[in-house]
Specification:
Layout lengths: L2 H13 L21 H15 L16 H18 L1
Length: 86
């Protein structure tokens, strides 16, 4: 399963009663009131657990959690950065 699909499934399961209809990787989540600032922190915990990354505090911003695409890009970037640290 792709990073985007995994995030979509999680959002649908937590905030949309499992309904993924109309939810794609470009939907502006906060603008449509799908998630709020508390939801961002829930997503951070999910991403850290599911993708085994650490999301630094400075990366927790509305810009990084605007859409599923931006979240997936953050996950991929943090994975790459984590690999270069090892």
């Amino acid at each position: 399963m792709s990073t985007q699909q995994s995030i979509i499934n999680y959002i649908a399961g937590v905030w949309l009663d499992g309904d993924t209809e109309g939810l794609d990787a470009q939907v502006p989540l906060a603008e449509l009131n799908i998630i709020d600032s508390a939801g961002i922190f829930d997503l951070v915990h999910y991403m850290q657990d599911d993708f085994r990354i650490t999301v630094p505090l400075q990366e927790i911003s509305p810009a990084n959690f605007r859409t599923v695409d931006t979240m997936a890009a953050l996950v991929e970037r943090l994975r790459r950065e984590g690999e270069t640290v090892r």
